[in-house]
Specification:
The protein has 180 residues and is α/β, with parallel strands linked by helices. The protein has one domain: 3-Layer(aba) Sandwich (Rossmann fold). The chain is 37% helix and 16% strand. The protein contains 5 helices and 6 strands, in the order ααβαββββαβα. Strands 1-2-5-6 form a 4-stranded parallel sheet, sandwiched between helices. Strands 3-4 form a two-stranded antiparallel sheet. It is globular.
């Protein structure tokens, strides 16, 4: 919740006038519970959706980064309150976990996927076919010279977070008519 990618994504949503909720999954930071390898974390995301729905009663756009992108897309695709999902730094494997995205084949909500083309946890040659198999509508954006945290690579130094933000903002404006 407190890394640069999540923070910079939050700034885009907030800058377009959207309310934002950031939270830690169970066992992260000061959150109660223990990491549940993706099972209980989907319940955490649904609990956050329930809270947002009770408090705001608005359509929900759900974005997540890395493990959070997988969990968010899984929860969001299955929930009618969620009108679109965003996956940032979409992983294929990390910390001993392999990620399967079969659920995206039936997810007809608008989807945006943004990853670095040098992402060590989601190499383009592995992740791209997984994302291409997702149902329409979808947009896939590869940030050139960026690794998992949208930082530069030795051949393309310097942060790429601004490019991630620009792609996210453009998609939100085009897909939902926000800001401009």
């Amino acid at each position: 919740m407190h890394n640069k990618v999540v923070y910079h994504a939050m700034k885009v949503f907030s800058g377009l006038g959207l309310p934002v909720l950031r939270f830690n999954f169970r066992g992260v930071g000061l959150s109660e519970g223990l990491h549940d390898h993706g099972r209980g974390e989907v319940d955490d995301a649904v609990a956050a959706l329930d809270w947002l729905d009770r408090r705001l009663g608005l359509p929900i756009l759900l974005a997540g980064f890395s493990f959070g992108s997988f969990i968010g897309m899984k929860a969001g695709c299955a929930d009618s309150r969620v009108k679109g999902v965003v996956g940032l730094g979409v992983p294929s494997f990390a910390e001993g976990r392999n990620y399967a995205y079969e659920f995206l084949k039936g997810c007809t909500k608008p989807k945006l996927f943004i990853s670095g083309d040098h992402d060590q946890y989601g190499p383009r040659d592995v992740v791209e076919p997984l994302l291409e198999s997702a149902a329409e509508p979808k947009q896939i954006v590869w940030i050139e010279g960026a690794e998992h945290f949208f930082q530069g690579t030795p051949s393309s130094p310097g942060p790429k977070l601004d490019q991630m933000q620009a792609a996210l903002r453009a998609w939100l404006v085009k897909t939902y008519g926000l800001g401009g």
